[in-house]
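quick one, 189 residues, struct below
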Amino acid sequence: MTELEKLEAGLPYCFRDPQVDSRKLQAVQGCQRLNALSVLDIQAREEAIRDLLGAVGKNPTILPVFNCDYGKNIRVGDYFLANYNVTILDIMPVTIGNHVMIGPNTLITTVGHPLSPQGRRKSLGIAQPVRIGSDVWIGGNVTILPGVTIGNNVVVAAGAVVTKDIADNCVVGGVPAKMLKTIENDVEA
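---
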């Protein structure tokens, strides 16, 4: 298997491999283009967002500075908002529902590295997808780790580190994030 095939199969892969690295270089260029545009040029920014990401719903907003690993693995629904300094390391798919707001300085990562120093010396990475439901508010300075699924109608408190799946209709916070309380979903039909 090539390193890219290993990555896509969820196996350990070499992140320095030229095929893997070329994805990142394309994303760097797309992010530079988006970040260079005026926040007042809404039409040009939306076009750059649509060029960078894999799928985009209605009325996306991504404020500078935005960074990602690939871009094409990010799929966002309608009324998506990423505030300042959001990073999404999308080596694997990141799927985000409708009406999602992401606070400043947030990191969503699909990639991790071995605990073994030998594995890290071999430049190994291992990736798992991240899924975020609809009607989610992710506060500032949040970290969401690989393999996590966040349900619908969830609030992630500022500074939380999400290491495990989060059920629908709740507020979570802390390091690691834990459920703080349940909340009503007042938009369900």
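The mean pLDDT is 96.
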